[in-house]
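Deviation from plan, reported transparently: glutamic acid complex.
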Amino acid sequence: MDYQKLAERLLPGEYPSPEFYEEKYPPRNLPEKAEVTRLAPSPTGFIHLGNLFAAIANERVAHRNGGVLYLRIEDTDLKRKVDGAVEAVIRALKYFDITFDEGAEIGGNDAYAPWYQRQRAEIYRTFVKKLIAEGRAYPCFCTEEELSALREEQTAKKEITGYYGKYAKCRNLSEEEIYKNLDEGKPFVIRLKSLGDPKNKITFRDAIKGEITVTENDQDVVILKSDGIPTYHFAHAIDDHFMRTTLVIRGEEWLASLPIHLELFDALGFRRPRYGHNCSLMKQDGETRRKLSKRKDPELSLEFYRKEGYYPRAVKVYMLTLLNSNFEEWYQKNPDADLAEFPFKVEKMGKSGTLFDLDKLNDISKNELSKLTERQMADFLRGWAEEFGTEAQRAYFKEEEKLLAALTLCMGIGGKKRRKDFKTASQAMEFLSYFFAAPESYDESGLDLKTRKTIAEEFLAVYSYEDDAAAWFSKVRSIAEKYGFATDMKEYKLSPESYKGSVADVAEVLRIATTGKANTPDLWTIQHILGEKETRSRLKNAVSAWEKA
Ligand code: GLU
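Because the crystal trials were delayed, the predicted structure below was used instead.
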């Protein structure tokens, strides 16, 4: 068969030569150990934790040694494309301080552009044409119906589905048949003529998993669709070659396609990049571990972390803990270090499923937030509130002095030990609400309403804004004594039945009256931050609420 002629017939016209592209996109001039890594999402609008997991690894690997991280958009499948998806990827990753050096919508070095696969059609066609001319690719005229009938037949016979071996009908078409089909104007795709044999195993060195054995590919995969756009498999091989990627870190769900990718690189005569397949994030679900699911687990979506207001560093610390087995120890020794100083190593990445535990992240979050100053915390909260907060929450920032005082108290700044009450921005803003608005409801207390009302009323009668903490507390004690509550905790513990309760119960009523909540930091300080007028008005409100009830 005259493959040259066939190539000309299938992709007529002048295309730039492969050498032209080799020259146009030369190997990068980088320091010795520098790696070129990439993120290559499809613009589906859904960016998830697995993407972040791989992104952090790629970013660290690139930036540890003066390499490059770029963003390529794999938009060959138009059906899955969503408007604004590229911006969403960039925004989601920027939140975690992942910045690209080059790529779609990034600016910077554009020597390896375009970054959208749809804009690279011309490059792909050169190489499809080359493969046809070499007899390594052929047109396939099978219709959708024929392909699904084939799939059914294979499924019924319990055979591997796909277009391969004896099932690859169009692989053996004669020259006449091909030209007849073309003359009739039949639509076609171009398939790779695979030379693989599934009886052969390939030993492959994965940068993360180490030596693995995969079965040789024998599928005649589609490389160019009937609309002239390549498939992801083919496009990614061309792109990783011409964008001069040295290391591909991606999710292990791509391991199944690896044999195809290896054959494509070989057929194209390109040197393969190194691949590292990252383990999947698992979730403990009762007795079993399963992959995080889009439907069941909101924490899979990266939007979740921005909306909840997770502190980016906390998420990053947790991800690094999962990514590199020696990170935790390093971090214990360097709790305040710039995370970029951690000597990240691909070899230290987990080889099999990693458990992602939201409770663990929450603990890390509390810890990270407890390291901030009140000013840093306020800035973090403001950023969140501007995007996700309510009107009322945004107003907190107009009363800055009060906000900073509230944060100082709630974070235990200046105290013996930092408090770890804040988990996320949304939760912290909710937590702070009683500093800015009188309670609309009251937590339960162990005491009956009448007693609660009496305590609030008595306190209101003696309350003075001028009292220091000691004077304030002695007033609370007097009320306790007057109404039969123990003021000596030791005595109270010895014979609780002799008392109505203890002074702590009295203070709790005042706490609930002031804030609505049974648990808060120091009440004297809270009342000071609120000011005299507001404190009085809240106590009065509580009295009348409990009176009415
Ligand atoms: N476009 C693929 C994705 O959406 C990327 C696969 C790869 O990294 O090679 O995940």
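The chain has a mean pLDDT of 96. We consider this an acceptable substitute for the interim report.
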